[in-house]
Amino acid sequence: MIAKQIKGKDFYGVLAYNERKVEQGMGYVLDTNISYGETVDMTQEFNIVRQLRPRLGRAVYHVSLNLPYEDKLSDKKFVSLGNDYLKGMGFDDNQYIMYRHSDQEHEHIHIIANRVKFSGELASDSKDYERSERLVRKLELKYGLSQLEDVQLTRKASITHQEIQKAFRTGEAPIKLMLQHHLENAILNSRNTTELIRELGKNKIHPKFNIGKSTGRVTGISFRYDDVIYKGSTLGRKYSWNNIIKRVNYEQDRDHTIILKTNSAERGVDKPLGENSNSATSGERKTIPISRGHIKIAEQPKSYLEKAKSVGLIPSKTDDSPWNAFTLELDDNKRFKKKKQKRKGPRF
Q1: Which of 21, 183, 221, 311 could form a disulfide with 27 if both were Cys (CB 3.0 to 4.6 A apart)?
Q2: Exposed, middle or buried by CB within 10 Å (0-12, 13-18, 19+), for 115?
Q3: Could you tell me the strand order of the sheet in which 108-114 lies?
């Protein structure tokens, strides 16, 4: 089972989304402890309790619990599962409403809950991803569901020795690490394929979808970032398309247009890069074949390496970035060299 959590500010938007599913005949309410009615009225009821924490920005908790394709649960079992999940995550005295959707091949439910308890206390979101993963594994056993391997959800492809050496040489954080970080954030902040494409674009990451000729269904994905293209699976199993759609909602008919539009934009970008692919252009850029998932890479001129700062990482690449640990690694390396020189002492 996959649990996807989202925290937001607006109850109305997420309630309206689920109510549209109900109106379209693709969803219905399983369980709730609020007065079920018009979207505006339900929003007001949530907001009454929310006012107990007027300074809280993200009071909305929205989670979808997604079963593997082969698993089935009755409505009664799904209600029990949903309530067990809420209690396990600390929502034991909170408003909630639970919907079951039928718009996907796999069975799943959506739960909207108020992070503010009736008592005015707040449901903690500390390490909620790790807590959710542990809880899901327990619920899989309790309800006889297929158990997913944790490695499938957590494994990322580690950087190679060559990438580490290049990082020390150029003073830039490895592109693979930067891409993994931005991709993870984009997935966490996206509910569907359209939002995923938009979130990736905010960090200048351009996806390209592989589409099956006979089925028209997406079978794979790659990402272009900083003129380097990686297949999703080479970034780690969790970034293969099959695992991404366990965390982001994908519908073939609904998303067909946006996917074709995104691929068309990528072909427009790839065309000039593909010209003269076996030779350097203007002495500055060249396209060379790279194995292990790299399709194209734009090399900087040698003069660029001479301009790279010798201390830490280049500020433009690391300001407000998550690579503090990487910076510390560089600093530790320099400190180690200095200590080693001091230990040698003066020569006689």
Answers
A1: 21
A2: buried
A3: 2-8, 60-66, 108-114, 96-101, 27-32
Helix 193-202 / helix 252-274 crossing angle, nearest 10 deg: 30
Cα separation, 63 vs 85, in Å, equals 10
And the tokens for 217?
Answer: 């269904």
**pTM for this prediction:** 0.47
Inter-residue contact 52 to 45 (CB < 8 Å): no
Q: Provide the token pair at 153.
A: 């959800």
CA dihedral 186, 188, 190, 193 (to 10 degrees): 70
What does the pLDDT look like over 290-321, one tens digit per residue? 444 444 444 444 443 344 343 344 444 444 44
> Cα–Cα distance between 137 and 89 in angstroms, integer?
13
Sign of CA dihedral 274, 280, 281, 283: positive
The answer to whether 218 touches 260, Cβ cutoff 8 Å, is: no
| Phi, psi angles (nearest 5°) of residue 122 | -115, 130
DSSP 225: E
